[in-house]
Design a protein that fits this description.
heterodimer, A: alpha/beta, Rossmann fold, 2 domains, 7-stranded parallel sheet, 5-stranded parallel sheet, 9 helices, 18 strands, B: alpha/beta, two-stranded antiparallel sheet, 27% helix, binds flavin-adenine dinucleotide
Chain lengths: 320, 245
């Protein structure tokens, strides 16, 4: 028996969430006295694969098969189920992001397992198997029991810390034996930026709202983000107005993020906005309205004009 | 092409969340029920495509008790042709997906929102696809029909992709699929009353997970305020107290 982790990479480098997932699996595995196997699909170099060992994977299955580049959900689910069977995995762990949400439900059906998504902590008990998850768009938590023998979890991002351990990982090339005719997705065109901080992976996120007044004022936010190595996001009206691209929209109907520091400028903190950011470790609000609901969610704040605060802030962080 | 749009009936997004029965159940007192926001965007796009002539028929379906019919009527008013309600209390995602499978097998394209804003499961679409052996595409932010073929845009890390996928398929949609949800017009509301809403009995299905109890997050400590002219102090707090800079 074992625990299986579905890892993700971006252009050949593991996303931080992969290490988080392995750390989480390892913490559980230690209690159950079971090994952790990590599955990597994509083109990842050997020394990068080895990194998964630093967080507790004892085996890394490497599927370097470019047919999976088309992100065909049916084929990916088949590959994971194949690995789960050959590793006799009892617990299978994904990230609660677009990838995990796409594959985990399919794997659950294939293996006759029980799925809980958006899990935020280690199981409270193993027999019965009970985990805590987010519900009502981060406004509450639920404790959910999984009945079947095979448990499938998607872990909410940034809900578990990275824990380094002695590296004993062995890497194996793995063929999940997915037939060609399973793949039915054809990619016609890809537009993606590289070399930028992935919003969902960023430790610090700088976010602008309608209080920024217009797209011409984003230069200062970009400068701040640059200095801090932060990602940039915005509220929904900002992307609806076309001030920023919609890939930056966070909130209930946009991206859900959980950085260590979420820094807002001119965002009122509507409940739908908070739905996407309230799992951030620290929230900072700069807003001229002391009654703005963002101050109820924030840990630190300045009631004041963001156009006065921003230049000072840039000066201060430059000195760090 | 025949489209099925899955409709989840959820509390209005501004609902104050409370629990009753020793924190074992969600308190529905005074709750306003709406079409799950993502399902509403999915339906809006389906209606737009139908108006452009690419779709034969749009059905909306929900697994729920009779109180969800008001939500299904609203979906009919937005522009769906008919509605199906599967008579059951939605238990967990697998149970719901099994119910929907009996209906969905007759459609070319199934659309479902990325998650329901109540239990945030993000699982019904994928499970349904697997039960039926359909493919599924997640993070779909654009949909067109070109020469009778489905063409999709999906979000990937750091960007987007245009893809073709064979039907039948389950598309799991998110922001971008439509700009604003369509608000039903008076004429639509009148017509909706006459559109067919069929009630189908539930099939036997397993429940694989159980909600044991709920809790609210602990109250947050008050926000520490710093003076507008003392940005330096904010940076110090973030460095020394929060240790995030
Ligand atoms: C179903 C549904 C889903 C939604 N999903 C989302 C979502 O995913 N994400 C999202 O963000 N919103 C979402 N919304 C919209 C949400 O309700 C709010 O309308 C939106 O978040 C407000 O954006 P904002 O804070 O930028 O703008 P506003 O609410 O207009 O706030 C602007 C703020 O800037 C401050 N300000 C103005 N000038 C200055 C200045 N010079 N210095 C300092 N502060 C200043 C003001 O005091 C104000 O608080 C959703 C709404 C619905 C109904």
């Amino acid at each position: 028996m074992s625990l299986l982790v579905y890892t993700e990479n971006w252009d050949g480098k593991f996303k931080k969430l992969s290490f988080e997932l392995v750390s989480y699996a390892k913490a559980m595995a230690d209690k159950l006295n079971l090994p952790v196997t990590a599955l990597s699909i994509g083109n990842v170099a050997d020394d990068e694969l080895k990194q998964l060992g630093n967080y507790g994977a004892s085996k890394v299955l490497n599927v370097a098969d470019n047919r999976f580049d088309s992100l065909d959900n049916k084929a990916l689910a088949e590959a994971v189920a194949h690995a789960a069977k050959s590793e006799n995995a009892q617990i299978i762990i994904f990230s609660h992001n677009n990838v995990g949400k796409a594959i985990a439900p399919r794997v659950a059906v294939k293996l006759n397992g029980g799925l809980v998504s958006g899990v935020t902590a280690l199981p409270e008990s193993f027999d019965p198997f009970v985990v805590k998850k987010k519900v009502f768009t981060q406004k509450a938590f639920a404790h959910v029991q999984i009945d079947p023998d095979i448990k499938i979890l998607t872990l909410a991002q940034n809900s578990f810390e990275l824990i380094e351990t002695e590296n004993n990982a062995v890497t194996e090339t793995y063929d999940p034996q997915v037939a060609d005719d399973v793949f039915s997705t054809t990619v016609k065109e890809t537009n993606k930026v590289t070399g930028k901080v992935l919003l969902t992976d960023a430790e610090i996120v700088i976010s602008g709202g309608r209080g920024m007044k217009g797209p011409e004022n984003w230069g200062q936010l970009e400068e701040l983000a640059d200095i801090l190595g932060a990602g940039l996001s915005c509220s929904r009206p900002v992307s609806d107005e076309g001030w920023r691209g919609h890939e930056e929209h966070v909130g209930q109907t946009g991206k859900i993020i959980a950085p260590n520091l979420y820094f807002t400028f001119g965002i009122s903190g509507a409940i739908q906005h908070l739905g996407g950011v309230s799992s951030s470790k620290f929230i900072v609000a700069i807003n001229k309205d002391p009654e703005a609901p963002i101050f109820e969610a924030a840990d630190y704040g300045i009631v004041g004009d963001l156009f006065k605060v921003l230049p000072q802030l840039i000066e201060e962080v430059k000195k760090m | 092409m025949k489209f099925l749009v899955l409709i989840s009936n959820v509390p209005d997004t501004t609902t104050k969340i409370r629990f009753v029965d020793d924190n074992k159940a969600f308190d529905t007192t005074g709750v306003q029920w709406i079409i799950n926001p993502w399902d509403e965007l999915a339906l809006t796009r389906a209606v737009e495509l139908k108006e452009a002539g690419g779709i034969e028929k749009i059905t909306v379906a929900n697994v729920g008790e009779s109180i969800t019919e008001a939500t299904l009527r609203k979906a009919l008013a937005v522009g769906a042709d008919d509605a199906i309600r599967i008579e059951a209390k939605p238990k967990d995602a697998f149970y719901v997906a099994t119910q929907l499978a009996q209906v969905a097998k007759n459609y070319d394209v199934v659309m479902v929102g990325i998650e329901a804003s109540d239990y945030n499961g993000s699982a019904v679409g994928g499970m349904l696809a697997e039960i039926l052996g359909f493919n599924s595409v997640s993070a779909v932010s654009g949909m067109n029909i070109e020469n009778g073929q489905l063409s999709l845009t999906r979000e990937i890390d750091g960007g987007q992709q245009k893809i073709d996928v064979e039907t039948p398929v389950v598309t799991i949609v998110q922001k971008g699929i439509a700009i604003d949800p369509r608000i039903p017009a008076m004429r639509g509301i009148m017509m909706a009353r006459k559109k067919p809403l069929t009630v189908v009995p539930a099939v036997d299905a397993e429940e694989k997970t159980e909600y044991i109890s709920f809790e609210l997050p602990p109250p947050k400590a008050a926000c520490k305020l710093v003076d507008e002219d003392n940005v330096k102090e904010l940076v110090r707090l973030l460095q020394e107290e929060a240790k995030v800079l």
